[in-house]
Amino acid sequence: MVTRVALALGSGGARGYAHVGAVRALQERGCEPVAVAGTSMGALVGGLTAAGRVEDFARWATALTRRDVLGLLDPSITSPGVIAADRLLDALQDVFTDVAIEDLPIPFTAVATDLAARREVWFQRGPLRAAVRASIAIPGVFTPVMLNGRLLVDGGLTNPVPIDPTAAVPSDLTVAVSLTGPRRVREPAAPRQESAAPQRFEEWRGRWRRTVATLTGREERAVADAEVERLASLHAPTGRTGWGTERLPADLGLLDVTAQSFEAMQAVVARYRMAALPADVLVTVPVDACRSMDFHRAADMIELGHRLTVQALDAAGV
Known about the structure:
The protein contains eleven helices and eight strands. The chain is of the alpha/beta class and 318 residues long. Strands 1, 2, 3, 4, 5, 6, 7 and 8 form an eight-stranded mixed beta sheet that branches. Helix 1 (18-28) crosses helix 11 (298-316) and helix 7 crosses helix 8 (220-226).
C-alpha cells in the first residue's frame, strides 16, 4: 500500500544534502510524495524531487571535491552578499531543467522572504529556477535577488521548515526534515545568566575550545592540543581589548559567523513554527553535522539523512 506523504524540507546549507537521503528512505518505505515544500537548500532538493531529478543531482553532488566547490563560488565584493551564486547555479543547468512549477508532476512550493514587506513568499507558479534562486539567498552569504519588484532572500529567515504550504494537499502523513537540530553534544536552549567578569582559566578554556570547534568545524581536541600556550595568553588581561572582551580566534571567518548567526535564528523560529503546526514524522539533522558551506560532503550528508529518516519512520511505525 502506498502512503501519500506531504514533505517539508528545511534550510541549512550543505546539510541539505541530507534531504536526498530522506527522499530515498521514504521511497524505500513505499511513501509517495504528493506535495513538497522547501526552503533554501530544501527548495533546491525539493524542486528536483518534484521534477524527478533528485538522483541526477545526487550523482553530481557526490562527485564534487573541496577544490570543485571553491571553484564554483564566485566572490562578489561590490554586491550585497559575499557570493553571487551564479557560477554554482550555472553548473546545475543540466540537472535543473527550465520548467514551470505548475507543470511539475508533484505540487511544489519554494519559500523565500520579501525583505521590504517582512513576510514569506510562496512560489507555486512560474519558473522553477528563479523560485529556487530566491529561496537560497542566505543573507550576508549569497546575494539577494530582485524578482517582480521584490527583494528576496532565504526563506529560512521566516519559515525554516515549511510545513504550512503542504497543508491543503490531502495526504496520509506529513514528514518534515529540519537541518537545525540540537548539536550532538547537547547544551540547554534556555537563557543562561552569566557574568561578564573573567572566569577561572580551566572553565574558560573548555568553553573557548567548544566555541572555536563549533564555528570552524575543527575537532575540539585539535583546537586544545595545538593552542595551549595561546589559550593562556588570550585569557590573560593582556589578551583583552579596551572594552574588557577577548581577542577573536585567529581562524574565525566572516562566512562562519554569518552562517552560524543565521542558523541560531532559524533554530528558534523553527521551534515556534513547528509547535504551531507539527509534522507527523520529524527528522532532525544536528546543526553540527557539517558546516553550512561544506558542499563537498554530499555523500556523508546523504547517508546521514537516510539513516535519520529510517530511524524516525521506525519510531513512528511507518
